Amino acid sequence: MQAKETLFADLVQGRAQQFQVPLYQRTYSWTEKQLSQLWSDILEQAELLESGERASAHFLGSVVLAPSPQNEATFPRWLVVDGQQRLTTLSLALAAIRDHVADAKPDEAERIAEEYLINKRKSGGDHFRLLPTQADRPQFAAHIRGPLTAQAVAGGNVAAAYGFFRRKLVEAEDPAAPQDVFRIEQAITSRLTLVAVTAERGDNVHRIFESLNNTGLKLSQADLLRNYLFMRLPTRGEHVYETYWLPLQNMLSNDELEQLMWLQLVLDGDDRVRRQDLYAAQQQRFERDEVTEGEIEAYIRELYRHGALFRRLLHPDEEPDAAVRAHLHRLDAWQAQVTYPALMLLLERRERGGLDSSETARAMSYIESFLVRRMVCRVPTNNLNRVFQAMPGQLPLDVPVADGLHQLLSADNRFWPDDDELRDKIRTAPFYQYGRWHQRKMVLQRLEESYEHPEPVDFAAAQLTIEHVLPQSAGDEWLRMLSEDAAGVDTAEDLHVRLRHTLGNLTLTAVNSELSNHPFERKQDLLQGSHLEMNRRIAATERWGAQEIRARADELADRAITLWPAPLRGVGRAERSRDWQLAHQVLAALPHGTWTSYGDLAAFLGSGAQAVGNHLADTPGVANAYRVLTSEGKVSGGFRWASPEEGGDVRARLIADGVRFTVNGAADPAQRVTADDLALLVAGTEDDQSDGEDTAQRGREGQDGETRADRFFRQLAADDSSETVGAVHALFSHWEGLGGWIGHGSGHVITSAFLMLGEAGAPGRGIWPLTLYPGGGRGGTVEVVFQHLAAREPFTDRTLRAEFLRRLNELEGVDIPEGKLELRPNFRLSLLEKDHNRELLAKTLAWFRDRWEGRGTA
Prior knowledge:
There is one protein chain. The chain is an alpha/beta fold. The protein has five domains: 2-213, no CATH class; 221-419, no CATH class; 437-563, no CATH class; 575-681, Orthogonal Bundle (Arc Repressor Mutant, subunit A); 696-853, no CATH class. It has a six-stranded mixed sheet with strand order 1-6-3-4-2-5, with helices on both faces. Helix 9 packs parallel to helix 12 and helix 23 (492-499) packs parallel to helix 28 (598-605). It starts with a strand and ends in a 5-residue tail after the last helix. Residues 148-152, 213-217, 571-576 and 685-694 have low confidence and may be disordered.
């Protein structure tokens, strides 16, 4: 047996060879959680390559190989006893890079394939450098052969991983922090290290596998560094421990202490150190020179001093100055840990007398504005770590601290939106679909506070949620009102989709569920009694259509411009290029077997359908551009390929991509990805789209004595037949008989019911397959939460989600396409009136319960 450190390139490059995954191995099972971590490591290594810094490569893990029984002297074949998940993932990442550059640089695409993915002169199964288990081979082979020669098989974890990398490569072209795709390739092939254990014939490879994976609880970076420091304090260790270390340890948790140690390195100017390299970096620093016990003590004393400052970031109430405390509270509510290097710098400079509290607050206002304006204008957050970690070393020395920070954040490559861009995005962008729900809520809260009402609301105590004034699901009365504002090619439905999620249509409310989807006149009465000034202003408006929503957006924009200061100089009108970047990202993420419309994409972007069509027609290389159709599901009469290489029959391409067509020649409307679906595609698996209102709770508390369950059934009965209400009662009883429980949304406006297993709020424990919503004028719906399930075991396995989908589709009237397996599709509650459908759903829910309860035994 031989064990040596190697790189992916060294392992697979060179002579023709093949790595075979044995049949007894499990199928490919990496989910977005593992893929996201790997992608983060890859980007980090790519940045290190770009900077030219000498830094350690990233250790990816082990690969255990054994000679295959089919081995030949001229064509080595290896069994992959351990490590197939890593090898498969890296191969798919390189296949995605190959396809990403294929149109612009076909020679490079061919090089990548021949160096890492295929044995050019071999055919059949021997053509592939890596040969997965039989179950994964069709999908893997389709992707390795390339989309230009064979269509990928839909579904499965292999296709999902390939799609993940295609999407991330588009994101990496973000103009705020562009990544060189070939640098990413280099990071994958030459900066990810593996330990390759090569067995001889007769070796017990399974015993090797067990020993490599039999690891105990690792010491944290803070543990390692503490031990190192006190070993170097032979005479002063006890004094230093009692005086500084023990109080520091009592002040902070182990994780917080590790974060503080990392921040100390950053404040000292090491803007590239990673938290996982903290121990090695600090050890290297101490051993570079002959460090005395006094210097070690001085370091720990400084750490102790910084610990008191760091606690103010974690516990803003400990900050004595009111203005600084308010900023710290808002940044804490924003969950802006990424800003800690800058905040620690400000507090440290203030303590040393470099600036006073008013200047500290002013500097923090720039940080808050930078975050808020970027979120409202939908600037990606992927470069924020780099921006703030580099700040201590970049701050100008010849200007006051607050001015220097303002200057740094105003640089063109920081993409801090100016007043014009902020005003435009408040008017047009779907604010409700970007950022996290607590960030959206904080923006609205801050806008409400700007009215400076003599009796301000106690936001900490108030149970406020975000309310759409124009409802998310508009009834006939709302559509009639919107039709009065429709002009040109716009319809009332177009205006509704475009305006409902914009900031001008959103408010905060603690009013109970009577608001719901009722006509504006009813909402006026309820909003008039609100303690919030913004609600009283809405109530004073005679109607609520497109003109009123846009006028309120302009008013809020004036307030936002005053609240959140602008960058020092205009950063240019670069926001449109970012909008197109967002369009490219979401189109790259379109699942197999789906299509979207120009109007849906325009509403998601906050743009116009015509502008979307022009951009796609004029921009070569946009993934899935041909899958953007008219709202009727037809290829636009003005459609043209952006480049000759992309040509071909559009309908044939769509059919090959799994899009079905109806008898009248239109794409199947069930496969359409709406504007809301597009937002989910780029939101990942986090439940941030619900504004925090859909958090299931057992609690029976209600308003005016009404429980949440009573409110749910009252709203349901107002819109659905008594037969449907009875079917829902029967469904709930059956679910409770299976050992589940019924949770209800914690919001005061949108009511909902969750079929829960386990405990809500307990990571990895609480899970729900379905959420039920009253219809608000359109009939109640059952939402199938595939997006939520994708992050919960055992349904991270896509094949299980696909089986759940297949079982649901057996219900008469339910036809959810496989392309919706990453989203939250729904069907009508009224379908449960049929006895046969209730019986099938009962069996499906029992199957779901059994899979969840057996998740640890597979």
